[in-house]
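HUMAN: Now follow token order:
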Amino acid sequence: MDSKDLANLIFPNAKDYTYYEEKYPVRNLPEGAIVTRFAPSPTGFVHIGGIYQSLIAKLMTKDQGVFFIRIEDTDQKREVENGTKQIIDALYDFDLEPNEFVDENDVDHGEYGPYKQSLRREIYHSYAKKLLEEGNAYPCFCSPEDLEHIRENQEKAKERTGYYGKWTKCRNMPVEMAIEKIKNGDPYIIRFKSPGNPDKKIKHKDVIKGAVDFPENDQDIVIIKSDGLPTYHFAHAVDDHLMHTTLVIRGDEWLASVPLHLQLFYVLGNKAPRYAHIAPMMKMDGEGKRKLSKRKDPESAVNYYKEEGIPKESVLEYLMNIANSNFEIWRKQNPEKSMYDFDFDLKKMGVSGALFDMVKMLDVSKNVISKLSAEEVYVASLKWANEFDPELAEMLSNKEYSLKVLGIERGNAKPRKDIAKWSDVKNIISYMYADKFDKNGEFEYQKVTDKDEIEKIVKTYFEKYYSESDDKQTWFNKMKDLAEEMGYCREVKEYKANPDAYKGHVGDISTVIRVKLTGRSNTPDLYEIMQVLGKEELLRRI
């Protein structure tokens, strides 16, 4: 008996691996076109890091390349309901549609599927059988207790833990004994027989990290588990070969696995893809930094952005800032261009963790929203409100009036930048709606605090100066006239030059009018607000 007999006993129905080599030929793509993937596990909510990785993949494949999704669901105990649907929906929500994927009904969209690992079992068996036949894999009959005993002995001997070298109890088991154990029904898994020597080094050039050295891998890792499914390490080596992946973009927590992965490709007789390991997203925590946490940070979940109403364009623009620091300058120089016109460079990505700053993201979002038309803001905020805020949806039910409100200071050379997310809209515009405005509220008038003075300013303005038909310059000139009549300086500069000569300046006068009409000292353009509210509502408020 030899290793082929052992392989046939373990995988009697597995096709010869050459069947799959012919089934999945080299992709017909232009020279230099990149094939990459996002390969998540459906084990929980989609992390913002997954959107970041997918964005980079889209950027790298925009010139006739292929970006595909592979669902890595071999750890089925941790899989959540609708996990695959959540992943695909998240990508489509952010306009990161893959060229190839599997949908929620396990229907493949592409020629190199199945795109779900649990449906590729027979493929992995064929390649595991190949390794068994060649003596590069073996069945391992160690029980959990055996492995724990090995680990304890390694710790006592102050040696590194794992299944390697002299600790590989089943590595050199005679084929005849292995076959007998299998026929007797002894439980087993399949291990890779590593040819590595940890005293030797391998040199690897990561696209982002640059040149890195590692000891060779000597761990005899599990490649097929007792349930017949592969481990991540083995499955990814088989899949990336058959799907003709040319570039693997993944988190740098996988950097330490590079020696093993390169070794698997080598022993399988296949060319490894290039690897680009992305630094993790970091967050300030007191004086130090830590990784963005699924457990601690709500912004780590993709659903957070939808629930808060942060536009996808804002999130993507911010992620571009993190990915390449020169994007921010490029965007200022090219405000109307698509971000896909940016010359993105993996080598310009930081090798240490990028700081994920929600304050900065919201600043980016204010810029993004400021460029939208009133119609675009209305449609987006109403869509969000219909799902998350019925009160705002009711406020926006009068489209004609709401467009006027949202159109204030929009489309100007310096448009308003007060909206960072759709969940801000209700609070920002509520004073523009008669049923939401409390004219008897306690308002802060800033510099002018005397109630009689406030009432006198307001009364004088509306009795003597206000006209609904005034253009903006006329309106402002009348504000100056009012200021002068009330003992305030017409010009701010003049007031600053001689402050003791006046009660204040025209800005203090306009603030009184602003607060009386809106309840706020900081609003968009007061003239536009008054034009939208109209004479009847203005007089009601005073």
User: Anything to note?
Assistant: The chain has 22 helices and 14 strands.
